[in-house]
Amino acid sequence: MGNNTLDLRGKTAVITGAGNGIGKAAALILAQHGANVVCGDLHKETAEKTAEEAGKFGVKAIGVACDVTNEKDLENLAAEAVKNMNGINILVNNAGGGGGGREKFDTLTLDYIEKIYRLNVFSIYKLSQLCIPYMNKDKYGSIINISSMAGQMTSHNMSVYGSSKAAINQLTKYMAVDLGPYIRVNAIAPGAIKTDALKSVLTDEMEKKMLVNTPLKVLGETEDIANTILYFASPMSKWVSGQVIAVNGGGTQSLE
Ligand SMILES: NC(=O)c1ccc[n+]([C@@H]2O[C@H](COP(=O)([O-])OP(=O)(O)OC[C@H]3O[C@@H](n4cnc5c(N)ncnc54)[C@H](O)[C@@H]3O)[C@@H](O)[C@H]2O)c1
Question: Is the full-model pTM beyond 0.90?
Fold first, then answer.
């Protein structure tokens, strides 16, 4: 079998925003493939709920309250991983967000812009810094940054979210250069994923519009992103670093 394996037994993964959506799906698939998982989320209860579900795969799993915009919380998340799991090999920088279509350019404040960059970009610098010594110690590290199609295309009123996600794409490439040879760094740019949050606002009409430029004619599921995270986390991608892969049904799910 050698390196052609998705087997993550003996490895530890830290996932931010693991209480819901893509982060939760990532924690579960990594646990299913044998990784111990540290599930960070703004909400302790949902982080613990994901950990409880992940634990059913027979791995060690803990939930930790962590607001990725708070430096102390990030330090605590990494410390909990090291204390409970003895190391860190995989980091999924997933927590992120923005004003989805409500970022009217002429009303943007610097406070808002800083808040979104702190959430989407600064958190990646800080948490990655905290994890890299352990990845190097084990000579096995994979950092997976969750970007967005908004970082590659344009639409109205998304300039802060979109540019912060574009920053993640380029940051991923610089990190790959700086952090080798034991650490690989890749990013995933999801298209529209049917998370609970999207489902709660999605109308048939919206979905129809989003599928016009989607060759595969369905919206994404969280498992579509989780499957790609598993690939990047595992030795299957051992010679892949500095890449941004769009997982988007082959197109863009624009509402414009
Ligand atoms: N869902 C999509 O269609 C889509 C598309 C492109 C990119 N993305 C990206 O995927 C990532 C995950 O999004 P999702 O749709 O799964 O979100 P979600 O809303 O379904 O879940 C996000 C989780 O992150 C947690 N969270 C929010 N702010 C946090 C913070 N400051 N610190 C720690 N945890 C926090 C929430 O509590 C929640 O559990 C984000 O970076 C998002 O930008 C999502």
Answer: yes
